[in-house]
Amino acid sequence: MSGASTAAYLARRAAQKERVRILYRRALKDTLNWAVHRHLFYQDASDLREKFEAHKHVEDLDTIDKMIAEGEATYNKWRHPDPYIVPWAPGGSKFTRNPVPPSGIEIVYDYGRENND
């Protein structure tokens, strides 16, 4: 392999590893949306990990790209329609419920205990 083809190979492998990592994290977080209890989630997470580990030995770049595309399609097909969102996160039920006061407004904490001069 020449230097240019080695660099291209390494760049493609790095991009594939990143896509697999992102796919695994998204699928794992989505598994938590489907599981009602933690003990169910642990089994599902273990099964998901086994699916990823089963194809760990594949070295052909085109096969890896095909497997990633299939995995992303499967993930998109089985994605939870109403994912859990932490209440205080963007999109959550408590997001910006108590927003920060605008600048220029002073909060007086000793209300009612003013000095009577």
TrEMBL record:
GO BP term, example: mitochondrial electron transport, NADH to ubiquinone
Role of this protein: Accessory subunit of the mitochondrial membrane respiratory chain NADH dehydrogenase (Complex I), that is believed to be not involved in catalysis. Complex I functions in the transfer of electrons from NADH to the respiratory chain. The immediate electron acceptor for the enzyme is believed to be ubiquinone.
Keywords assigned: Acetylation, Electron transport, Membrane, Mitochondrion, Mitochondrion inner membrane, Phosphoprotein, Respiratory chain, Transport
Location relative to the cell: Mitochondrion inner membrane
Transmembrane segments: none
Protein name, as recorded: NADH dehydrogenase [ubiquinone] 1 beta subcomplex subunit 9
Classification via InterPro entries: Complex1_LYR_dom (IPR008011), Complex1_LYR_NDUFB9_LYRM3 (IPR045292), NDUFB9 (IPR033034)
Assigned GO CC terms: mitochondrial inner membrane
Matches recorded under PANTHER family: NADH DEHYDROGENASE [UBIQUINONE] 1 BETA SUBCOMPLEX SUBUNIT 9, NADH-UBIQUINONE OXIDOREDUCTASE B22 SUBUNIT
Organism: Durio zibethinus (Durian)
Chief subcellular location: mitochondrion
Subunit structure, interactors included: Mammalian complex I is composed of 45 different subunits.
Domain of life: Eukaryota
